[in-house]
Specification:
The complex is a heterodimer.
Chain A (H helix, E strand, L loop, with lengths): L3 H25 L2 H18 L9 H23 L16 H14 L3 H12 L4 H8 L3 H19 L11
Helix pairs in contact in A: 1-2, 1-3, 1-5, 2-3, 4-7, 5-7, 6-7
Chain B lengths: L2 H9 L10 H18 L36 E3 L6 E2 L7 E4 L8 E7 L5 E6 L7 E5 L6 E3 L11 E5 L3 E8 L2 E8 L4 E6 L14 E4 L2 E7 L5 H8 L9 E7 L2 E7 L8 E4 L2 E6 L3 E6 L2 E6 L1 E3 L11 E5 L2 E7 L5 E6 L5 E7 L2 E5 L2 E5 L11 E5 L4 E4 L7 E6 L2 E6 L5 H4 L2 E6 L4
Parallel strand pairs in B: 1-20, 2-28
Antiparallel strand pairs in B: 3-31, 4-5, 5-6, 6-7, 8-9, 9-10, 10-11, 12-13, 13-14, 14-15, 16-17, 17-18, 18-19, 21-22, 22-23, 23-24, 25-26, 26-27, 27-28, 29-30, 30-31
The chains are: A mainly alpha, B mainly beta.
Chain lengths: 170, 425
């Protein structure tokens, strides 16, 4: 803990952990798993710290790491877990509307394959451009566009909201 | 607010308190960093040109039918290298402070070409392409090269020669070799044929061995659990990791390297060299092998979970050893490949081009966090100016290049890079 780069590393962790955890949560839908994802990302970042640039691209680097881990783990889980229950949007009671909304949204996001979900979160929560998302996910820009489009279509269908917009086309 | 904004806001409405344990995070990070350092040679990515061909009496490995199994060569005890005078380099040729630029782009200095120029890299903040330049340290003038054919992510220099610059580029899950032909003034970028599943997607271990780049890969997938099991001795290391190699001149020529599985790989005279079983150093020449004993100074027993790392400093074969306790050693071999002496330090010993390096507590208890550069004879010790913990970057062509990353404000004000001439004897 005495080295200069540890101090710098911890400064970066303090400044970015909240945002990264929210991004991870949107990608995985579970706060505990999100915390694990971010912790694993920070550990990998710590290992790489002495040999990476600490400039403005550092936040992007951390996002990229979180996205890769989330997609990797999402794939493993999706191949080994079975969805046992889906929340129907019409069953929400008025006095718990907030909770119900959240569950509905999470269930809808949970319908998305990990890569589509990552595209959606990076494009519209992190507000990144198509090129940047493509670089983070290591795919072509066209793939980002098609994955995002499919994700939106799935959300519209799941949420029963054909008018759902991303705000980007308007 | 768009519909998606509302969706995300709804999803995040129950955010609990973050209970991340930063101390545990650093402990785990340090554990993995130590493991990787032991598993692979870091900072030895520069090509080792076969400038002096050492006469090596090559013998066929005695594993064929009828051959008696060769006895393990005994460990040879060697004297500790006595360090000579501390020599302070002259005023640096180049001191580049990289304050935050108005456009957010950042410069870094990645290495020294064998004709004495410093490779400068300018990374854009958000969009645009990374550009490269060659700096003449005598004048500070930068000759900017043409733009690479596409944006490259964190290029790592592999070969910096008078006629070509070769970088390893990772755009996970794809990996490329980016080459600049200095005579033609043109770039080319080739994807490595069988994309390796690398150990660490953010910093795969690479070692240039002659005309090939060795890559340490995860045998199956990035798997920290496998790594932990291997560390605990529950499974052999090659259960988790394997080596492959790709030709520097042809990224399509990618192949597995089973002969060096389960250990660290270094380069000596353009050929792979490994240390097996904390006991023997094996040098390869095609299908032939030559085994020479591991040398150790008195008081140094290799840490059980460490991987002695062979490499080359100048013309000298070096084996880096983590000893039990807080010491490390660089064992030096003579031209007959006999271990003759060892540089021992309470800190971390490494190799930088033609030099050895010592970090922390190595020379003076009063300055425990310094980095010193030592010639392989131990005759001369160079302290590096800068902050308390300067980081080595490269050496070559009579130059030393390092950076000062010690300030906690680096992210805001940038690194300082230094280039000095190595004082003449």
């Amino acid at each position: 803990m005495a080295r200069g780069y540890d101090t710098e590393f911890l400064d970066f962790v303090e400044g970015s952990r909240g945002r990264l955890r929210r991004t991870a949560y949107l990608m995985c839908g579970d706060w505990d798993r999100a915390a694990d994802l971010v912790q694993e990302a920070f550990i990998r970042l710590y290992v790489a710290w002495p040999r990476i640039d600490h400039g403005p691209g550092l936040a992007a680097y951390a996002r990229r790491t979180v996205a890769h881990i989330a997609i990797d783990q999402g794939r493993k889980r999706s191949s080994s877990e079975v969805v046992r229950e889906r929340v129907a949007p019409t069953e929400a009671a008025d006095d718990t509307a907030g909770v119900a909304d959240r569950l509905v949204v999470l269930a809808a996001l949970g319908e998305l394959p990990p890569r589509q979900r990552a595209c959606l979160v990076l494009r519209f929560y992190e507000d990144l451009g198509v090129a940047e998302v493509a670089q983070i996910l290591g795919c072509r820009q066209g793939t980002v566009k098609s994955q995002t489009s499919r994700a939106l279509e799935t959300l519209r269908r799941t949420l029963g909201d054909p008018a759902l917009t991303d705000g980007a086309a308007s | 607010m768009t519909d998606l904004d509302r969706i995300f806001a709804a999803a995040l409405a129950d955010e609990p308190e973050d209970g991340m344990d930063l101390a545990a995070l650093v402990v785990e990070g340090e554990r993995r960093r130590t493991l990787r350092r032991r598993l692979a040679i870091s900072g030895v990515a520069a090509a080792t040109a076969a400038s002096v061909l050492v006469a090596v009496a090559v013998t066929r490995a005695g594993t064929g039918d009828g051959d008696p199994a060769p006895a393990d060569p005994p460990i040879v005890r060697v004297p500790v290298l006595e360090l000579g005078d501390v020599v302070v380099p002259d005023e640096p040729l180049l001191q580049h402070h990289d304050p935050a630029r108005g456009d957010g782009a950042r410069d870094s200095y990645d290495g020294i070409t064998d004709d004495g120029l410093v490779v400068r890299r300018r990374a854009p903040a958000e969009s645009g392409r990374t550009t490269f330049g060659l700096v003449d340290p005598a004048t500070g003038a930068t000759d900017w090269l043409p733009e690479p054919p596409q944006e490259v992510f964190r290029p790592r220099p592999l070969v910096l020669e008078a006629d070509r610059l070769v970088f390893f580029v990772q755009d996970s899950p794809r990996y490329h070799l980016l080459t600049f032909d200095r005579r033609a003034g043109t770039w080319s970028m080739e994807q490595i044929a069988a994309p390796p599943k690398v150990l660490d997607p953010h910093g795969p271990f690479t070692v240039v061995v002659g005309d090939r780049l060795y890559l340490l890969q995860s045998a199956h997938h990035y798997d920290p659990e496998c790594e932990s099991r291997a560390e605990n001795g529950e499974v052999p290391w090659d259960t988790c990791f394997v080596w492959s190699s790709v030709a520097l001149a042809d990224a399509g020529d990618h192949r597995p390297e089973p002969a060096v599985a389960g250990t660290t790989v270094g380069s000596y005279e353009g050929q792979p060299v490994v240390v097996r079983g904390h006991q023997e150093v094996v040098l390869f020449d095609g299908e032939d092998e030559r085994t020479v004993p591991l040398g150790l100074p008195d008081g140094c027993e290799p840490a059980a979970d460490s991987f002695p790392s062979p490499t080359q400093a100048g013309d000298t074969l070096i084996v880096l050893v983590d000893c039990v306790g807080p010491t490390t050693a660089a064992v030096l071999y003579d031209e007959r490949l006999t271990p003759v002496s060892a540089l021992v330090a309470a800190g971390q010993v490494g190799v930088l081009g033609e030099f050895l390096t010592i970090r922390k507590e190595a020379v003076s208890e009063a300055r425990p966090d310094v980095l010193r550069v030592v010639d392989v004879q131990g005759d001369r010790v160079y302290p590096l100016r800068g902050g308390p913990a300067p980081a080595v970057t490269d050496s070559g062509a009579g130059l030393l290049l390092w950076q000062d990353p010690s300030s906690g404000e680096v992210a805001r004000r940038g690194h300082t890079y230094w280039v000095s001439e190595v004082p003449p004897d």
